[in-house]
Write a structure and sequence with these properties.
With 473 residues, the chain is an alpha+beta fold. The protein contains 16 helices and 23 strands. Strands 10-2-1-14-22-21 form a 6-stranded mixed sheet, with helices on one face. The radius of gyration is 23 Å and the shape is globular.
């Protein structure tokens, strides 16, 4: 099958990988007038944020929550016909633990920023005066520093430097760090954490700090509508077709699909596959050896999601709660979501998230699920939660890269006409859906600049492949 035909002289671009980064790149390239072919090895779009079927029920491979700063993701969703009020439950920023335990209750009212956070802090239950003063002190200092450190350090070192109390660290900063960066504070980058705070809690708009809980399956939020949009506008979306190889061909690129399909020639290529897959494809190109090595050197963090089915009508008082985790005592859950409050088809279903789940992933599945059920029963004072009718544990072993201090992440641009897209590329942010979307947009911009060159100069042009620092800019 040939690539789609665009306008005369249109740049023909292959996008390898149909996750959020690849779909964002394909959408932007199509908007720029390119003729796009999107390759996805799986039978559905979505990448790591994909759907699975469990006992006849459509679930995601992990429960997501979006914390502020999702401007570009929401914009592209609107472009492909997905309205926000259908896609998400929007809640003011909060960190609320089950009542009666040793947690806290911090919830912002719907007031203008920054008044909403000041009122939330004054009203917060479960925090002593010293805890509240410590939170205000860190917020004030971070603003004064411009939300960045000259020399990156761990989040734990940042918290110690600004005298954050043990209780505030345990109840607020640690769960927020793990949720946002999927890396424990002992190993997580303070600069990336500060960037998240800057564009959420520190933003000038209250809405930027809101939490968005998906009502729709992750695929239906953006990747699947994006694929349908591309197909309607004459572009090719090839599911179940893996890109097995790429090689230079004059001023263009040959893309070699798997399954004995013939190679196809394109003017440019966007590699939006996971970092290990992109590394393997680049390793076959001598001029990309250093970049391939950089991608291979990235370490990764797992996320586990445990779904627990209870009797119809089983409900929590709120759509989600924070949980006190303590692996030493068998407490693994960090957040629990009442799925029925997001999707009526999930009556009686709870989802518990374990981020940075290296230790949890080593346990037998039945043991981990049982420990999580016992944790819920204890924390909510509801013995029936210890005995779900069934459980399903889904572990994404390479959910995100390890977001460590001073990590040098690759830039989008690498070789003439070949660019990277993915949540692991250079960015202020950790590995989030928004990072993936913005990376896809940046890749499309780089392709546009390449396409503007005279054809005879494309094979001689050199985009800068030097990696960019992940410091806040």
């Amino acid at each position: 099958m040939s690539a789609p035909e665009g306008k005369p002289g249109a740049l023909r671009v292959a996008v390898a990988g149909g996750g959020w980064a690849g779909c964002a790149a394909a959408l932007e390239l199509a908007r720029q007038g390119c003729a796009v072919t999107l390759f996805e090895a799986a039978r559905s779009l979505g990448g790591r944020a994909r759907g699975v079927e469990v006992r006849g029920m459509a679930l995601d491979n992990g429960q997501h929550i979006l914390l502020g700063a999702y401007r570009e993701s929401l914009r592209l969703m609107r472009r492909v016909g997905v309205p926000e009020n259908t896609a998400f439950l929007r809640l003011p920023v909060q960190m609320r633990y089950p009542a009666g335990g040793d947690g806290m209750d911090f919830a912002a009212p719907r007031l203008p920023a920054p008044l909403h956070l000041a009122v939330a802090l004054l009203r917060a239950r479960g925090l002593a005066r010293a805890d509240k003063l410590a939170l205000a002190r860190l917020n004030s200092a971070a603003r004064w520093m411009g939300w960045r450190l000259n020399d990156d350090c761990t989040v734990l070192e940042l918290l110690e430097r600004f005298d954050q109390t043990e209780r505030l660290t345990r109840l607020m900063w640690r769960p927020l760090c793990i949720a946002a960066l999927n890396t424990p504070p002992e190993r997580a980058s303070a600069n990336v954490f500060l960037a998240v705070l800057r564009d959420s809690l520190g933003a000038g708009r209250r809405a930027a700090s809101d939490m968005l809980l998906p009502r729709l399956p992750m695929g239906a939020l953006f990747p699947e509508p994006a694929g349908a949009w591309l197909a309607r506008h004459g572009h090719a979306v090839r599911l179940g077709v893996k890109v097995a190889g790429i090689r230079r061909d004059g001023d263009g690129w040959l893309v070699e699909p798997g399954a004995d399909l013939p190679a196809e020639r394109f003017d440019a290529v966007v590699l939006a596959t996971p970092a290990p897959v992109s590394a393997a494809l680049l390793a076959a190109l001598p001029e990309a050896a250093a970049l391939a090595g950089q991608l291979e050197a990235l370490t990764h963090e797992p996320i586990a999601t445990c779904y627990l089915q209870y009797a119809p009508g089983t409900r929590l008082a709120l759509p989600f709660y924070a949980l006190l985790d303590d692996p030493a005592t068998g407490r693994w859950g960090q957040f629990v979501f009442d799925r029925a409050q997001l999707d009526a088809a999930h009556d009686g279903l709870l989802a518990v998230v374990v981020s940075a789940a290296f230790e949890a992933a080593r346990l037998p599945r039945e043991r981990l699920a049982g420990a999580i059920a016992s944790q819920l029963a204890h924390d909510f004072g509801r013995p029936e939660l210890a005995a779900p009718s069934w459980t399903q544990l889904i572990t994404e072993k390479r959910a995100t890269f390890s977001c460590t201090p001073g990590l040098v992440r690759p830039s989008n641009t690498s070789l003439p006409g070949l660019v990277l897209a993915g949540d692991y590329t250079a960015s202020d942010y950790p590995a989030t859906l928004e990072t993936a979307v913005r990376s896809g947009q940046a890749a499309a911009t780089a392709i546009r600049a390449y396409g503007a060159l005279p054809r005879e100069k494309r094979s001689l042009s050199h985009t800068h492949g030097a990696a960019s620092s992940d410091s806040v800019r």
